Amino acid sequence: MRLKAVLVLAAAAVLAAGCMTNGMFVSMNQTNVMLSKPNYKIAAANVKGEASTAYLFGLSYGMGPSAGTLGLIRIEGDGGVYEKALEKLWENYKEKHGSIEGKKLALTNVRYDSDMLNLLLYTKLTVSMRADVIEFEE
Length: 138
Prior knowledge:
Blueprint: H1 2-17, E1 19-23, E2 40-63, E3 66-77, H2 81-97, E4 105-118, E5 122-136
Antiparallel strand pairs: 1-3, 2-3, 2-5, 4-5
């Protein structure tokens, strides 16, 4: 009986002290653009950003368009994998095409992929985002 109580308390402590990351990138923006004249150009095609997080004693999972991780001890990355992947996408754009300041840019054809590795004591979630960057001209 005492062992059972200790196991229940240990399980409760793991659940209370664990880390969790969950997210999804769903583009819910609506933009009306008049395409009756050529007022835009493709500034960059297939720009990529990627971010990872890893845990000991955890589990990564995917449910529909989202992916998440539940773990006890984070050993790599941070919890905001979707945010970090988007930041990395813009960093990669700036490395090849210069500053984005003062430009009218938009992401189009946004797509993402997630990769999960679940081992006995280790889990890793990697989220990749790809998009085309368009620039609107006067």
